[in-house]
Amino acid sequence: MKVLVAVKRVVDYNVKVRAKADGSDVDLANVKMSINPFCEIAVEEAVRLKEKGVATEVVAVSLGEKACQEQIRTALALGADRGIHVETSEELQPLAVAKLLKAVVEQEQPQLVILGKQSIDGDNNQTGQMLGALTGMPQGTFASELVLDGDKANVTREVDGGLQTVSLNLPAIVTTDLRLNEPRYASLPNIMKAKKKPLDVIDAAGLGLDIAPRVKTLKVEPPAERSAGIMVDSVATLVDKLKNEAKVI
Amino acid sequence: MSILVVAEHDNTSINAATLTTVAAANAIGGEITVLVAGSSCATAAEAASNIAGVSKVLVADNAAYANQLAENVGQLVADLGKDYGHILAPATTTGKNVLPRTAALLDVAQISDITAVESADTFKRPIYAGNVIATVQSSDAIKVITVRGTAFDAVAAEGGSAAVEAVEAAVDAGVSSFVGEEVAESDRPDLTAARVVISGGRGMQNGENFKLLEAIADKLDAAIGASRAAVDAGFVPNDLQVGQTGKIVAPDLYIAVGISGAIQHLAGMKDSKVIVAINKDEEAPIFQIADYGLVADLFDAVPELSAAL
Description:
The complex is a heterodimer of chains A (249) and B (309). Chain A is 27% helix and 31% strand. By secondary structure, chain A is an alpha/beta fold. Chain A has a nine-stranded mixed β-sheet, sandwiched between helices. In chain A, a hairpin with a 2-residue loop joins strand 8 (152-159) and strand 9. With 309 residues, chain B is an alpha/beta fold. The chains are: A alpha/beta (249), B alpha/beta (309). Strand 9 of chain A pairs antiparallel with strand 11 of chain B.
């Protein structure tokens, strides 16, 4: 079976992002960009399915400006077979991404689509669910375990109360949580090989979809500052401060 | 303007997250209808009708909604929600699972995890792990929104007398089914609602050592949390994780033990009123946001703290 994996180019998770002084946007000049960590887990899961002989082909797709081909190459270096880049310079919000991914799903007809549960820039946690709605596919979000069984996918999900398992008819959508797997590092030979793997480019405008942003960012600002704290030298002082200064115990 | 709030419930009672979502609906302003979709959920519907400020309760009682499967509930909410100006749900794993499906079916955006209402179409929400707060304006006819519970004060669970109306429509997409669940049983307060939270990180070294935190939690009626590192290492289950992609907490007192303070963890707890950090590494970033920092070996300090309380 074919597995489609969506990958997003985001600010590296080690970067502490700040708002620009004029509040117009976040300051992303010269910051390191990487594959979204949850997307990396998605690629790893798909590659493991291929290594187990369950998946026959792993296709990695990314959307946006040309630079996101770097993240597709990362996915190819991790073991995906080929890439698709849906190219656009428009700002893409989750609904637009879901619409474009639906077009790719219609073209590729995968049995399984794996996405990260959220991207660490927008923190939206929407795209997989929206793709599910648009394609009519069932979804297993926040997955910590994926077991394929005939024409079903059994997905264990990390939920507020603990773990929940659902059974989905294929084709289905899975969004990854942190415990699904631990992604491998791409080896140098695999990084070299990835450069030769096929990568098709689709012009988003040619798909004729309404991908205009629906939500406008009016301003961005830093969160409320916490006032500076103090260091205490002993447990006794700590307890005293909590009782008599902070009055929380 | 009318607002539909999707209730989070267990078929018999209403989850506290619903009360903070109703508070966000109040801030938007308008007639509030609460939807209780479940199976044998009449008791939950009755509880919803008592929530202060709610005008009407819709009850969709059908086996298809028993486990809140997103394929079924998402469609139901879209069908019912198309006549409303706003559709709100708590930003819990249930709300986050269901509501984007609803938004896509209505061909509108979702605004995730709002922390403030500026006006009926403008909201604040954290992005980049809470390092930036964005003010966003929706141009959609229907605003579909999930609400961060810690950012709003819950409305009273009692005092209302909303009319309860049954919804006949039954949506069963037939593409998914519930297999089972492992729900952690605990006598402690809910992590997201507790007045005091004590969390352990990688420094705890193993799951057994979390007993040290339990002793303090017993004395302070605290919930126990953990950093991602502690969950990944298998010390404690995933439902304890506090952080950007785990649970967001804002208790009166947050005690971080053996947690270095990665930005992803801080995103989940930095709105706590008072933060205490205990860590043997004086360079740990957690000290930068702590109100009270103690550089000490947790295996000395935690038993001592427990004894002093």
